[in-house]
Design brief:
22% strand; EC 5.1.1.1; Lyase, Ornithine Decarboxylase, Chain A, domain 1; 2 domains; alpha/beta; binds pyridoxal-5'-phosphate; 29% helix; 8-stranded parallel barrel; pyridoxal phosphate; Alanine racemase; 11 helices; 17 strands; TIM Barrel; 372 residues; 6-stranded mixed beta sheet
Length: 372
């Protein structure tokens, strides 16, 4: 579809590739890098990001749900893809057909995987999920895992991996993550003593990959930091990354607004002196958070200008009085690479008391991703 509106999310695949290389250098040679591309690559665009990650050295991909994995296969991507979450019974056959790797943590899924693989006489890899302290999905104990594995007499079902997920790896205090790691190690040991060696053990997300090199094991699963974002500020000194996404727009009308003339819905802003107001064609219908009303800023030629009034569904107003007249129709950047004078995603997230993950994921499908 042609996009006529001058609003876009710039996605620097160059920055993404640099970030992949930074992680490849960071981990040891016998540790695999899984690029996590769930939720449309955290809003950055699934297929271009997945392809760039593989081109620059990612060994595998991780997604949350089978729909995402099938989209990758349909685009011709043939590296191993692990589905982290729950796969409903009725979807298991499709997963087997598409050579997807399934996460198993219940008897129900295990039985269905065996049935589907046997029916097609097709090999399938599974990874067992251990709950080491997040209390979301997974089996808590080694004996639970062994009981599950006992069900598998099928030559088609291979236990390729076992993994866990950290809930607090961005905390500067390592205590809880260390406890989770040791719990996971003890489960792996108990399982391998009976079952034999499992080829791929893994536990690190971005935060743990950056701050706990001793926990990398056979593979790391890096999501947010491949997009150039740090789960915690203290991680900046460990590895150097570039922010991949910038949100940009251009004004469609600029006019003077005077005292006594309130701006936008609810009249929440009224100028105290005559100001120059630019209207930009982007709003909360595009995922620009409405909570930025009278709070957020854009950067125009390195100059910061405030959002005035409420963010509407499709339009937003900016006070551009401080910008020289000749620059007012330049590109307006809501967030971008801070090294280039832009507001970082971290800054926007802090302002909204959320995390940058949520902001990039929320940028809607109406905003075209422009790969640069
Ligand atoms: C999302 C996710 C990751 C990646 O987490 P980041 O913090 O984005 O690096 C890794 N593993 C699992 C199981 C996940 O769900």
């Amino acid at each position: 579809m042609t996009n006529y509106r001058p609003t876009w999310a710039e996605v620097s695949l160059e920055a993404l590739k640099q970030n992949v290389k930074a992680f490849k250098d960071y981990i040891s040679q016998d540790c695999q890098l899984m690029g996590v591309v769930k939720a449309d690559a955290y809003g950055h665009g699934l297929i271009p990001c997945a392809t760039s990650m593989i081109d620059s050295g990612a060994n595998r991909l991780g997604v949350a749900i089978i729909e995402e994995a099938i989209e990758l296969r349909k685009a011709g991507i043939n590296v191993p893809i692990l589905i982290f979450g729950y796969t409903p019974r009725e979807a298991v056959q499709e997963a087997v057909n598409h050579d997807l790797t399934l996460t198993v943590f219940t008897d129900e899924i295990m039985e269905e995987v065996i049935r589907a693989a046997e029916e097609k006489e097709k090999s399938v890899n599974i990874h067992i999920k251990v709950d080491s302290g997040m209390h979301r999905i997974g089996l808590k104990k080694g004996e639970d895992v062994l009981q599950l594995l006992e069900k598998n007499g099928s030559p088609y079902v291979h236990v390729e991996g076992i993994f866990t997920h950290f809930s607090d790896a961005d905390n500067e205090d390592p205590d809880y993550t260390e406890r989770q790691f040791h719990h996971f190690l003890s489960v792996v040991e108990e399982v391998e003593n009976v079952h034999g060696k499992i080829p791929i053990t893994h536990c690190c997300n971005s935060a743990a990959t950056i701050t706990f090199p001793s926990m990398h094991m056979d593979m790391v699963r890096v999501g947010i930091s491949l997009y150039g974002l740090y789960p915690g500020e203290h991680m900046r000194e460990w590895i150097s990354l570039q922010q991949v996404m910038s949100l940009k727009t251009k004004p469609i009308m600029i006019k003077m607004v005077y005292p006594g003339e309130p701006i936008s819905y609810g009249r929440s802003y009224e100028p105290e002196r005559p100001i120059e107001v630019a209207t930009v064609p982007i709003g909360y219908g595009d995922g620009l958070p409405r909570a930025l009303s009278n709070k957020g800023h854009v950067v125009i030629n390195e100059q910061k200008c405030p959002i005035v009034g409420k963010v509407c569904m499709d339009q937003t107003m900016i006070d551009v009085s401080s910008v020289e007249e000749s620059n007012r129709d330049a590109v307006y950047t809501f967030f971008g690479e801070p090294g280039e004078g832009n507001i970082s995603l971290k800054e926007v997230a802090d302002q909204l008391q959320t995390i940058h993950y949520e902001i990039t994921c929320q940028i809607g499908q109406r905003v075209p991703r422009k790969n640069i």
